[in-house]
Amino acid sequence: MSGLLITFEGGEACGKSTQVALLAESLRGTGREVVTVHEPGSTPIGELIRGMLLHAREASGLDPRAEVLLFSASRAQLISQIVQPALERGAIVLSDRFVDSTLVYQGFAQNLDLLFLDQLNAFVCGNVKIHRTYLFDLDLDLAQARRLRRVRPVDADDRIEAKPREFHERVRQGYLELARTNPDRIRVLDAARSSKELAEIIWEDLRGALR
């Protein structure tokens, strides 16, 4: 594949979506084809799964094993329908969450077997490989303050955001552990920085890959 897959990871309210949009705008300014996606979702099937996983009242007691299979089903459809064709065209794909979210949210935070999750991710992704991952690390108190400032529809409570602080601390530490074991791929960024500063850091880091 001649394209690039760049993923954005981190806990809740860390600013991933903002940076995806800013980088997409910069890349398109160079004439490159850019495809932006988010997980779960970005396909009709994925959006149905997203609604079930994040917002449905019936999902309140969802078993972590069922949860990870639903996330993986959404990802499989996303790869087949959007990501792989875009990479084969030579496009740059920017993904708001990808396989690291599975390892962290279902593995580190909910104690599912990491080896199994690695194997599941490999099965779902096939020959699709990540070029670079940007991990936005944010103190939990600041993350909570940002969440409280968000404007959401009345019926759009997020099941995962609502989990207890201990869960989100395991998520944060899980991400940092992945960064320690994958230093060539994962760049850890201080998400407390301004969006402009973060965008400049990312752009400078990517310049070499775009030549």
Written overview of the protein:
By secondary structure, the chain is an alpha/beta fold. The chain has a single domain (4-210), classed as Rossmann fold. The chain contains 8 helices and 5 strands. Helix 4 packs antiparallel against helix 5 (114-125) and helix 4 (99-108) packs across helix 7 (165-181). The protein is globular and about 45 Å long. The chain starts with a strand and ends with a helix.
Q: Topology of this structure?
A:
Elements: E1 4-10, H1 16-29, E2 34-38, H2 44-54, H3 64-89, E3 92-96, H4 99-108, H5 114-125, E4 132-137, H6 140-149, H7 165-181, E5 186-190, H8 195-210
Parallel strand pairs: 1-3, 1-4, 2-3, 4-5
Radius of gyration: 16 Å
**C-alpha geometry:** globular
Q: What's the CATH class label?
A: Alpha Beta
What share of residues are in beta strands?
A: 5-15%
Sheet with the most strands: spatial strand order:
2-3-1-4-5
CATH superfamily: P-loop containing nucleotide triphosphate hydrolases
Please state the average pLDDT score.
Answer: 93
